[in-house]
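Lab notes, practical 5.
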Amino acid sequence: GCGRGLPPPRPLDELPARPTGPSAPVPIDRKQALAYLSITRSHPRWLVERWLDRYGFEAADRWTSFNNEPAPVTLRVNTIKTSVEALTALLAARGVMVAPGRWSSRTLVVQQGNPLATDLAGQGLFLAQDEASQLVAELVAARPGQRVLDACAAPGGKTAAIAGGMADRGLIVAADLRPARVALLARTLAGCGCRSVRVVRLDARRTLPFAPVFDRVLVDAPCSGVGTLRRDPDIRWRCTPGDLPALAATQAALLRAAAAVVVPGGRLIYATCSSEPEENEAVVERLLAGGAPFARERPAGNAPSQLIDGQGQLRTLPHRDGLEAFFAAVLRRNGGA
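Output from the prediction step:
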């Protein structure tokens, strides 16, 4: 279902106008609303129809507007090598002005200049990483000395963030499948100075070669990516709803395999950069319905309460939070202390 070409451009005076009328979850003229969101806002009709039905027109309108705006450069400070304050000063000395992130204490948002063009870029002091992605890594909440598996780790930004949160003390096994991805993962972690990480190549969809010894297991699953259209606009024309069942099947296999290596009392964290339920809560529910000895758990630590839904899951929404649409659930394995 991927690989469709871009639709031909239409004259501006032919583009559907924004619907007007009383405030309601769905405008009276649904057909006009969908035409406006899909054609004028340049989004796939199947996707904006889903957003319209779940969140209403005003939210879908703000969401598509968000996706059509340039994304800021956001940095995650590598606390293994530096601090937020020290990096802010180093960047300022090179003409790069930054501001703190809204949600994560380790995020810096670039307001002026290009940090990637400075001599700091090759020193492993920071990684360019979306703020919502950083929040997922923080949900792992591993403590120094614990064992962690990052089952789909490339390119390595979340692994490095987990290592920083553990003060680089303990053991992190970072895994991926394709050789090029494994090589990229190893380069990222070496550049960040992560001494607690061991990189392995494996197919995380299959039975893993580990006993249930990990205190934390992160499955940052391959997904449609439809939550990140602002940063990767080509996705909107590559993927179709027909892609979702196969993606969900892979995600379910990854989560099932990962569940088997969590120590009793440990946590399994499942995450995607998708907005769609089939890839998110439905995958979690499939694992729990199959009898896996886990229960949902509200994230510990500093997870912003505004971003946690009624089931204790992280859910970032562009129209509400000013972040790409990410999802994450923390599952605690039964037993243990």
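Observations recorded by the TA: Residues 74-128 form a domain with the Alpha-Beta Plaits fold (CATH 3.30.70.1170). The CA atoms of residues 71 and 200 lie 33 Å apart.
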